[in-house]
Structures are given as structure tokens and as C-alpha cells.
Specification:
Elements lengths: L13 H7 L5 E8 L1 H13 L2 E7 L12 H4 L4 H11 L14 H25 L1 E7 L10 E7 L12
Parallel strand pairs: 1-2
Antiparallel strand pairs: 2-4, 3-4
Length: 163
């Protein structure tokens, strides 16, 4: 991949990945639709890899309910479904001012709740240290959250410090 000896690119279905590789250091996902974000994150957690994922299509995850115990204690499945549905926000291709709209502000808060649940799950399930960020400028995409998780045992490794 690009002449780099330590980089492997896999093209195929997410479920097929574990059939070919049982270890990787970092998993990247850009605009992973709905449950693909959850599956990508879960696969990274299973192999102890860092994950850097930009989620998309939040409404599709609503039927699954909360993943983390932390949020599950405060929201039932119907509440979570409402929040996930409200996180889906689309704009016209030429609307660069959408980040200032009230509708986007509501959707952004809902995206933050869904993604905080995802990161809380990784922390609870496997001791990940997590971060929830945004791509900049916010107008690059209405789905501009970035979830990051690093297994705590890797935090002393200098190669992960600039993630």
C-alpha cells in the first residue's frame, strides 16, 4: 500500500476482515453508515486496535438501543431511538452555512450522545481511553463527529500520542 511495508489495505466486507486478519494496530473508518460504525469499532476492540472512525447514518442504529451500561441506566430503547433518529441531518450540497442552523445544532447534540455511548461501551468493555472530536471545518460534512479509542496499555507508546 503506497510502498509502505507496514501498511496493508483490505478491500471487502467487514465480516470478511477477521477471516483474513486477526490483528491490526489501527482501524480507520470514514462515513461508516449506521451499524458499520458499531461493527468496525467492535472489531477493533476485539483485536485491541486503536480506532479512528467518522460515523454516518445515525438513524439506522436506533433499533439496537444503548451499547454502554452508563447510558443504558439513563435511557430506554425508545428514548435512544428518538435521539439516534434526531441525529440524522442532511443538507443541500451547496449549503455551507448549515452548522449555524438550529436543526443542525440539535442533530449535533444527538450525534454526540450516540457517539459518547459508543465510546463509553469501548471503555467499559475493554478499558479503552476514548475521545469524541469533530472534523473541521464543521461544514465539511453534516456527519462530522470523530470517535477515537486507544487501548490504555498503548497510551505510553509514543506512536499513539499524536492521534
Amino acid at each position: 500500500a503506497a510502498g509502505l511495508a507496514n501498511v496493508t489495505v483490505f478491500e471487502g466486507g467487514a465480516e470478511e476482515l477477521l477471516e483474513h486478519y486477526n490483528h491490526w494496530d489501527i482501524g480507520f473508518g470514514l462515513h461508516c453508515c449506521g451499524s458499520l460504525t458499531d461493527l468496525s469499532q467492535k472489531m477493533c476492540v476485539e483485536v485491541g486496535a486503536t480506532y479512528v472512525i467518522v460515523p454516518c447514518c445515525y438513524g439506522q442504529v436506533s433499533k439496537n438501543g444503548c451499547r454502554s451500561q452508563c447510558l443504558f441506566e439513563h435511557l430506554d430503547c425508545n428514548d435512544f431511538s428518538t435521539i439516534a433518529s434526531a441525529a440524522d441531518f442532511s443538507v443541500a450540497a451547496d449549503d455551507e452555512d448549515f452548522p449555524t442552523s438550529e436543526q443542525f445544532q440539535v442533530a449535533k447534540k444527538c450525534m454526540m450522545i450516540v457517539d459518547a455511548d459508543r465510546n463509553s461501551w469501548a471503555a467499559e468493555a475493554a478499558g479503552y481511553s476514548t475521545s469524541l472530536e469533530s472534523l473541521f471545518p464543521l461544514s465539511c460534512s453534516p456527519k462530522n463527529n470523530l470517535i477515537v479509542g486507544v487501548l490504555k496499555k498503548h497510551q505510553s507508546d509514543d506512536s499513539y500520542k499524536n492521534l
